[in-house]
Amino acid sequence: MASRKGGVSLPERRGSKAEGNKNGIISRFYQSSAVTRGREAASNAVFVSKKLLRSTGKAAWIAGTTFLVLVVPLIIEMDREQQLNELELQQASLLGAPSVGPPLK
């Protein structure tokens, strides 16, 4: 009995590199200057987009943390002051004191 070694060999495809046919329509298309410039433009667009996205993320982080550190405490303090003013007006009206309004001109 003879033993087999190896697998099934398939016929070469048309236009493959094994035949040495480098002048096919598809290979000429991919080697054209328009395709090359298009690839370069796409590569540059991806690079710029990544840089822009990264810098936008950094700017958003800076703006968000600044807002949390500076603006939120200010809003909380203004709300407390407003509540305190309302409480004083309620107490004054309950005690019968005349309400203090804006001065008349």
Automatic annotation (TrEMBL):
Biased composition, class Basic and acidic residues, residue ranges: 11-20
Membrane topology note: Single-pass membrane protein
Gene Ontology biological process: intracellular protein transport
The keyword Methyltransferase is annotated on this UniProt entry: no
Keywords (A to Z) from UniProt: Membrane, Mitochondrion, Mitochondrion outer membrane, Protein transport, Receptor, Translocation, Transmembrane, Transmembrane helix, Transport
Entry's Gene Ontology cellular component terms: mitochondrial outer membrane
Cellular compartments annotated: Mitochondrion outer membrane
Region listing for Disordered, in residue ranges: 1-20
InterPro entries: Tom22 (IPR005683), Tom22_pln (IPR017411)
Leader sequence segment: none
Transmembrane segments: 59-76
Family named by the database record: Belongs to the Tom22 family.
The protein's name in its UniProt record: Mitochondrial import receptor subunit TOM9-2-like
Organism from which the protein derives: Cucurbita maxima (Pumpkin)
Phylogenetic placement of the source organism: Eukaryota, Viridiplantae, Streptophyta, Embryophyta, Tracheophyta
Gene for this chain: LOC111491492
